[in-house]
Design goal:
Chain B: Belongs to the leucine-binding protein family. The structure holds two protein chains of two kinds. Chain A is mainly α. Chain A is built from eleven helices and two strands; from the N terminus they run ααααββααααααα. Chain A has one domain. Chain B folds into two domains: 210 residues, Response regulator (Rossmann fold), CATH 3.40.50.2300; 108 residues, Rossmann fold (3-Layer(aba) Sandwich). Chain B is 44% helix and 20% strand. A five-stranded mixed beta sheet of chain B has the order 2-3-1-4-5, with helices on both faces. In chain B, helix 8 runs parallel beside helix 9. Chain B is globular, with a radius of gyration of 24 Å. Classes of the chains: A mainly alpha, B alpha/beta. Chains A and B meet through helix 1 and helix 10 of A and helix 2, strand 8, helix 7, helix 8 and helix 9 of B.
Chain lengths: 289, 396
């Protein structure tokens, strides 16, 4: 059981970081970013390129992923999403745009990075083994700790910094924030960039553990949406809770339900449907939005 | 007529003459279209991409040499591609598109359900297709338009397990497969083969979602059964290195194998030294057996696409077989019945391997008719970034 919990915590930490970026963008702009998984993939490929091709340190790779994805996010917000939001009152317009960007990024990724699975050498060798009750490679422990630290840093940033407070105000009430002098356009762009940067950072972190390939984008987006459905869309604490809950459910299911075949996600989806029927706003979301 | 008008008329005549000459040349130069319907996007993109790029590379090599002469006519080879996204519905649409273009020879699809789905379309439109899928009913009468493009898991599995039993003392085997038709059918045939050899199957129930990225929880219950050999049935190239790494991280020291083709670079990047000893099925590019023509193919592929993919070692054959069989009976260009007849007696030197290996159609033992390309069964062992040939066998 100890092993199952540790596996769940590792999965949860990385999942939560993915969900944070998605929920941030949703809370600020009411945009369901279907391209979030593709941004994660590009982050992974950038770290791979920096570390495996240019032989630079892992942290440089992470930094490159963060900067590149932040720039991509800012560009997407300023030149794609913002004009569509201005011109169209229909919410599905941004959804279609996001889906289009996802397909576009998939095609670009194939052209630039190729079709192969990519990975980088372990950043730390060795395996922690507590009498075979808990077996955990040190690189997983390190990446898990980094993910938790990044979640903590993000929460601090949102609570303590002027930018974070402005974005929270924007998320709570866009019009009120604007009336109070918050530069809505500027902070929307910063928020989108921050969300995309988080996706890129997780991609960079996990390329050292699970590698990266072209096909990871879609499934990553689906999992991220599940997490924010569990925790509550647009709520930061909800995204964190959703990430850890999904990670734990996956770990428990894969271990305890293995004898019954691959039914873990079947059970998770069924449970999610029942849960949403009773609490459509998720654990921490508000029923009114 | 002044001098300027004369010059204008001369120029116009020269342009007309050159246009008519190039039109005549275009009429003389025939194009032979060969189709590809397979997966070139998503998690399994590596399979189809290496497939179609092998075809494009060989076509480029042949076209650069002036084309292929079939029945006294020289053809330029054009590869018409369709990404089925590993979706049977799209595979059907792809095969219909090939039919609309009058294409009679198609390579793909890459997976079982896609290959089964396109069968009615292929048969209704006189298309011979070369899937990389293993269901026997595709190749057994009354089916007759599909030709298996590689060695099936139920053919390679027994050979690999026997080798490991005899040479490495393997007695206990565990299987793990993705929850999809191909890996599951490969797992089932592997379990059957292992049991037939008298091996103890310690685990075969554990499966995983195809998009799984963290295999530690998946492998934990499998490795608790302490097998000597862990078989990754039908494992996708994207998942193999992660599974190897997770198994080693969990303290597993036994053997790991698969019956699918893998890429050494991908294994090296994803698993590093942990993959040493990993056994997989390959093609013809290991230094021990690759011919100069194979080396030329690898160099051309690398030139065209930047990086070679070892999975192409098995994918290089399909187009070669189609063209050489058409050379054997040129009527096959428009009549697939003639092609099928030529398959019965077809034999040509295998240009990709050293020695006197032959290209023939096989499959009589498995399917009751010759509906399989005789691709060499090359079993490789990964060692420090490269594959080494463990043994080579043939299939019928």
């Amino acid at each position: 059981m100890e092993q199952i919990i540790v596996n769940g915590l590792f999965l949860g930490a990385s999942y939560a970081l993915i969900a944070l970026g998605l929920t941030l963008i949703f809370s600020l702009m009411n945009v369901l970013n279907f391209a979030h998984g593709q941004m994660y993939v590009i982050g992974g490929f950038i770290t791979y390129t920096v570390v495996a091709q240019f032989h630079l340190p892992f942290l440089v790779g992470l930094l490159a992923s963060a900067v590149a994805l932040a720039a991509l996010g800012a560009f997407a917000e300023r030149f794609l999403f913002a004009p569509v939001i201005r011109r169209s009152k229909r919410e599905e317009s941004t959804m279609l745009l996001a889906a289009g960007i996802a397909f576009f990024l998939d095609a670009v990724t194939l052209l630039v990075f190729g079709e192969k699975q990519r990975g980088i050498p372990k950043i730390v060798g060795g395996v922690f083994n507590w009498d075979f009750r808990i077996v955990m490679p040190y690189d997983r422990i390190l990446i898990g700790a980094l993910a938790v630290a990044l979640i903590g840093a993000f929460i601090l940033f949102m609570r303590q910094s002027r930018t974070g407070r402005a974005m929270r105000a924007l998320a709570q009430d866009r019009m009120a924030a604007e009336l109070m002098g918050v530069d809505v356009e500027r902070y929307s762009m910063i928020g989108f960039a921050l969300g995309a940067m988080l996706a890129g950072l997780v991609g960079g972190l996990l390329v050292s553990i699970v590698g990266v390939n072209l096909g990871m984008g879609g499934p990553t987006s689906i999992k991220a949406f599940m997490m924010i459905m569990i925790g509550g869309a647009g709520v930061i604490s909800g995204a964190i809770a959703g990430g850890f809950i999904l990670g734990m459910l996956e770990s428990v299911g894969l271990s305890l339900l293995a004898a019954y075949g691959d039914i873990t996600y079947l059970v998770i989806f069924a449970s999610l449907m029942i849960f949403l029927a009773f609490r459509p706003q998720g654990l921490m979301g508000k029923p009114w939005g | 007529m002044n001098r300027r008008t004369m010059m204008l008329r001369s120029t116009a005549l020269a342009v007309l003459a050159s246009l008519s000459l190039s039109a005549t040349a275009a009429m003389a130069e025939e194009t032979l279209k060969i189709g590809f319907v397979g997966v070139t996007s998503g998690p399994a993109a590596a399979w189809g991409t290496s497939n179609v790029r092998s075809m494009q590379t060989l076509a480029a090599m042949l076209n650069e040499k002036g084309g292929v002469e079939i029945g006294g006519t020289t053809y330029k080879i054009e590869i018409v591609t369709f990404d089925d996204q590993k979706d049977p519905k799209r595979a059907i649409a792809g095969m219909e598109q090939m039919a609309q273009q009058g294409i009679h020879y198609v390579v793909g699809p890459n997976v079982d359900d896609g290959a089964a789905a396109v069968r009615p379309v292929a048969e209704a439109n006189n298309i011979i297709y070369v899937p990389y899928a293993f269901p026997k009913e595709l190749y057994t009468a009354p089916a007759e338009n599909a030709i298996l493009g590689m060695v099936a898991s139920y053919q390679s599995g027994p050979a690999i397990y026997k080798y490991l039993k005899d040479n490495k003392g393997v007695t206990k085997v565990a299987f793990v497969a993705a929850n999809e038709s191909d890996p599951l059918s490969q797992r089932d045939s592997g379990v059957e083969a292992a049991k037939a050899l008298g091996l103890e199957v310690t685990s075969s129930d554990v499966t995983y979602q195809v998009d799984t990225t963290d295999f530690t929880p998946v492998l934990l219950p499998v490795l608790k059964t302490q097998p000597d050999l862990l078989v990754l049935s039908g494992v996708a190239p994207a998942a193999a290195p992660q599974m190897i790494r997770s198994a080693r991280d969990l303290g597993y020291t036994g053997l790991i194998s698969t019956e699918t083709a893998q890429d050494a670079k991908v294994i090296e990047e994803g698993a590093g030294e942990a993959a040493n000893g990993f056994i997989s099925v390959g093609g013809a590019s290991t230094p021990e057996i690759a011919s100069d023509y194979m080396k030329e193919f690898v160099a051309k592929y690398t030139e065209m696409f930047g990086e070679y993919n070892d999975e192409s070692n098995t994918k290089v054959y399909a187009l070669e077989y189609i063209l050489d069989t058409l050379k054997a009976d040129p009527k096959g260009i428009s009549d697939i019945a003639a092609f099928k007849t030529a398959m019965e007696t077809f034999a040509a030197p295998n240009p990709y391997m050293k020695g006197d290996a032959q290209m023939t159609y096989v499959g009589t033992t498995s399917f009751g008719q010759k509906r399989q390309l005789s691709v060499p069964l090359v079993v490789n062992e990964y060692k420090d970034g490269a594959f080494q040939t463990l043994f080579v066998a043939t299939v019928d």
